[in-house]
Amino acid sequence: MNQHVMPKLNRRAFVIGTAAAGAGLSLGLDLPFGGPTVVRAADGSPEVNAWVVIRPDDTVVIRIARSEMGQGTLTGLAQLVAEELECDWSKVVTEYPTPGQSVARKRAWGDFSTGGSRGIRSSQDYVRKGGATARMMLVQAAANEWKVPASECTASNSVITHTPSGKTTTYGKVVEAAAKLEPPADVKLKDPKDWKIAGKGLKRLDTVDKTTGAMIYGADVKLPGMLNAAIKDCPVFGGKLKSYDEAKITGMKGVKNVVKVGDSAVAVVADTWWHAKTALEALPIEWDEGENAKVSSESIAKWLAEGLDNAQPAYIGNQNGDAKAAIASAAKKVEAVYNYPYQNHVTMEPLNATALYTADKCEVWCGTQNGEAAFAATLEASGLPAEKCEVHKLMLGGGFGRRGMTDYVRQAVLIAKQMPGTPVKLLWSREEDMAHGKYHPVTQCKLTGAFDADNNLTALHVRLSGQSILFSVRPAALENGKDPAAFQGLNATGEAAIGYSVPNLLVEHSMRNPHVPPGFWRGVNVNHNAIYLECFMDELANAVGQDPLEFRRKLMSKHPKHLAVLNAVADKIGWGKPAPQGIHRGIAQVMGYGSYVAGAAEISVTDGSKIKVHRIVASTDPGYVVNPAQVERQIAGSFVYGLSALFYGGCTVKDGKIEQTNFDTYDSMRIAAMPKVECVMVPSGGFWGGVGEPTIGVAAPAVLNAYYAATGKRIRSVPLKDQNITFA
Amino acid sequence: MANLTINGKTINVDVEDDTPLLWAIRENVGLTGTKYGCGIAQCGACTVHVDGVAMRSCGVTVSEAAGKQITTIEGLASNGALHKVQQAWVANDVPQCGYCQSGMIMAVAALLKEKPKPTDQDIDEAITNICRCGTFQQVREAIHAAASA
């Protein structure tokens, strides 16, 4: 944990509203790139600027504001800083600044939020400038010492050389002087084609501790005098805690306290978590379940199905021409209805946070995808101002969007507040995690395609019905009631644009928000939208007897980047050439998070119900690739996550509660089912797209389309387990 | 109360007999490399060796484990050198979030003891740990690398 300990900075405290810290938007960026006052790290080493600290032994400490949850951002961002800094990569270590320090320094490190595949693409510009600025100051300091123009000096591998004289010095020797210099006004960044550290598949910086058990995750925090809490929230979302019979468990071993948490949850605090959980299970609890106890998956499905009716109101997300009229007068019409269920993130590390509350301070230790949002939750739950709160970020045992939410942080603080002076670690059981997710939203979709007499696609109508994430999570982002994110992958333009040109197009969303709380789940709305569109593209191709790839290509001439990745996977998988005996292929493409991606699968099917995935090929154009080895791992991992959801996922609702309770009812892929993912990276430059999420969108449709090729049976409903289809 | 022999050291832990070994290791002994993922012996994040056999420690009680040789991830390295599986993990840059990797590594170390040169099919049958990040490709490569080290 030591590398994450930061100094108490002697700066004036900035009191900010919790909403501002949570939204992370309203303060604007004011990134300090150095200045005459030297700021020092805990060990006394000077900051060259907020991003770079250099120790006298030449160790380079790079500050990373975004969270590492396995996606490799920590390493990738360090590569970008180091590239411009021209430092010795073998001497690089990283540390997290805390949200409290960031607030106190006018958000010196910018946005902490780590989601939407933004970790690198949204901070690459200013972290590279941070590295470049530091390099220029270090070079200037050496030049000053030698009394030569900085233009005669170069820096490489943490060594500064005065070219004419051959004199050299190191960053560690000039850092004290450099830290006192004014930062340069003009900073020129390298052309990515000249990268030496970025763009390379360097090893991650956080691997060794993850192989020895030494890495400290939130669940591993130990503080002197710490107690442990287990929690149960009303299993019906929106319900309340009515009563509990504390007397029944007060004598149980290790139990120290039973506390109400907000108006819907109860927690048992004990010496160990095992004692807390055991006592909580023995605690008689009465819930006021409320009206939502009547809701079931069936009632939700019925309500959503009503939204597929064109007579119902809907928000328009994308339209050109007159799709409804073109469909009405079509020579041939194809229609299909699809659906996609709730999904739980199921991070391997169950949610947890440790809080210590005293009258004048509240500190939290947790894994979070958004340090600033966790900080805001700490302020709000503790009732203390920003200068009296702090959040210490720890390694995340998975995030996938779930740890961008702060419900568990709020709960930990509310518990600790009732036991001032005692640190309390709140750990959710897996059962609590399954019962209180922030679920991938539930949707249905009716798609209608129209052809003219020559089998040209003249119209496409995509009618979505279902839940909006933003309505629940970020209502301020709605546009006159419309959730713009609902159309991810189907938009006319932007970072999630449709890859087809259809003369008459209508994409609309009938918003229906059941009581089950939705959240951002790796890939978010791309998951279902890509299944709907890409499986239906196959249906359309089939309806006119055309090859699915050729059918798509004809509609993609105005979308060259979408087409390029599609062609890349087609080439790699050998589309158009005969597949081996018994093997069938499926293909899909989508754009999301600023990146163009495509996937293809080769599968065999036994008895119509046992699927063996033999090959997966995936392609991405994210503009630039900062670490190809990590991009490859993200792509492969996204297929594991996406196919787990396709085959085994699906959270169902009964009596207002989620029915699945653990991995025995919500399974996840094992190694046996997963083939190697063959990646084709085609970064075309000029833009920065994300990596962690986009390819998950093509995982399910590529396999579903291959299943159709193998069986002639079209699957329009997820998960496959409900249709007795599983891995071979 | 139970006497547990963990990583070669015998430790007296003051817990009820039916306490899962996982929680005695994490909370009473204080070794946190062994992880809680499900508590129902499904995910494998809590895998340790009990008398050399890979077991899900959430499904073993301390009374069952008492008197047996228990090895956790912290005890896998010997004489300051990482176990060949750990070395292969580092060389192949296997972990993503890393939370499941202690259990994965323990399962693989036990497999290699039984089958020093496992085939892909051996791996498929023996390694049933869940990894939500999806590191399986690197896991497989690293197993083969460790087997030939």
UniProtKB/TrEMBL annotation, chain A:
Q: Where is the Aldehyde oxidase/xanthine dehydrogenase a/b hammerhead domain?
A: 212-291
Q: Which GO terms describe its molecular function?
A: oxidoreductase activity
By its UniProt entry, which Pfam families does this protein fall under?
MoCoBD_1 (PF02738), MoCoBD_2 (PF20256)
- Superkingdom, according to UniProt? Bacteria
Task: Supply the SUPFAM superfamilies for this chain.
Answer: Molybdenum cofactor-binding domain
Q: What is this protein called?
A: Xanthine dehydrogenase family protein molybdopterin-binding subunit
User: What organism is the protein native to?
Assistant: Bradyrhizobium australiense
UniProtKB/TrEMBL annotation, chain B:
Enumerate the UniProt keywords alphabetically: 2Fe-2S, Iron, Iron-sulfur, Metal-binding, Oxidoreductase
The protein's GO terms of the molecular function aspect are: 2 iron, 2 sulfur cluster binding; metal ion binding; oxidoreductase activity
- Give any Pfam family that matches: Fer2
PROSITE patterns listed in its UniProt record: 2FE2S_FER_1, 2FE2S_FER_2
User: Does Chaperone count among this protein's keywords?
Assistant: no
Q: The 2Fe-2S ferredoxin-type domain covers which part of the protein?
A: 1-76
Instruction: Please indicate which superkingdom the organism of origin belongs to.
Output: Bacteria
Region forming the signal peptide = none
**The UniProt record lists the keyword Ligase:** no
Q: What is this protein called?
A: (2Fe-2S)-binding protein
Q: Which organism is it from?
A: Bradyrhizobium australiense
